[in-house]
Design a protein that fits this description.
Length: 303
């Protein structure tokens, strides 16, 4: 998200994600629960929070889990609002996602990247805002992050996200090739419930600049390339998950380097319906402005 938020994501929602872990054979002391898919419904936090692009997972990384608390015979969903404050920019985001039968996820998100007073220094005008809409679909292929404790096979999902930016003229002026594009990713998520540990790895094929907020492709490069997103979370208590995420990103534009993103997060679930995530995010350089580090807050309400 370092640049995810860069000109794009400063707000995403990242760290929360869920601990998908909430219980487990091991967690008998904390959760007093043994995984059994026949009982229906998911455990606290196991649907994750909203990622930068709106899909279920962490703030920076998309996970293989499906959002909400619907089991294989049910439907779950959530809405989220995210705010990211950086030294020179501000990111606001709202969105919704629905999980169908613990197999398919549909998501939408609108991101607003506000340049504030920095917009005048960039020649765009004070308060100039980039707006991006993201529509996504995720499908689980194999495995089960929660119930597959007897196997080392992680839950694996494939997903597609289409992004549309409203500032085509500005994107073209800074060297971007297009104001819309499509990312494809494969995510693998594994929960070690007895250790209260979650590990996720995602490979995304993309050419988005700052997750799309500065367009797609550029004067330096206009080809799709694989980029990595990783998350590690540890459940301290039944309701509190802490962890870290790292996301690599393309560097397509000649006028400004794009850095990888990093965050340290804490996600707290008040109940299955309400969770709050707070994080320290380091987005590096965004549109020539260095050291974009700040606070991320995301509220999620769902079922």
């Amino acid at each position: 998200m370092t640049h995810e938020v860069g000109a794009s994501v400063i707000r995403s929602i990242f760290p929360c994600l869920l601990a998908c872990l909430l219980a487990g054979p091991a967690a008998a002391q904390v959760f007093d629960w043994v995984p059994d898919s026949r009982t229906g419904g998911k455990l606290l936090l196991t649907g994750g929070v909203s990622s930068v692009e709106g899909a279920g997972g962490g703030g920076l990384a998309t996970w293989a889990v499906t959002t909400g608390y619907g089991a294989e015979d049910g439907i779950g969903g959530n809405v989220h609002a995210t705010y990211v404050s950086l030294p020179d920019y501000e990111l606001r985001s709202v969105g919704a996602a629905v999980g169908l039968w613990d197999r398919v996820e549909l998501s939408v998100a609108r991101q607003e990247f506000d340049t504030g007073s920095t917009g005048a220094l960039l020649g765009l005008g004070e308060g100039f805002t980039f707006t991006q809409d993201v529509v996504g679909v995720k499908v689980k292929l194999v495995g089960d992050a929660v119930y597959g404790q007897a196997s080392w096979l992680p839950q694996v999902s494939i997903g597609v996200q289409h992004k549309s930016n409203d500032q085509g003229a500005v994107i073209s002026a800074v060297g971007g090739r297009d104001d819309e594009g499509t990312d494809v990713y494969v995510a693998a998520t594994k929960l070690f419930l007895s250790e209260s540990l979650l590990v996720n790895g995602t490979v995304r094929w993309t050419k988005a600049n700052q997750t799309g907020l500065l367009g797609f492709g550029g004067d330096r490069n206009d080809d799709y390339a694989p980029r990595f997103e990783g998350s590690v979370g540890y459940l301290l208590t039944r309701n509190l998950l802490v962890g870290a995420e790292y996301r690599t990103k393309p560097d397509n534009l000649g006028f400004a380097a794009e850095d990888d993103a990093f965050d340290l997060f804490a996600a707290y679930a008040f109940s299955k319906n309400v969770s709050l995530t707070a994080a320290y995010v380091d987005l590096g350089s965004i549109a020539t402005f260095e050291d974009q580090r700040g606070l991320y807050l995301s509220l999620q309400v769902g079922f």
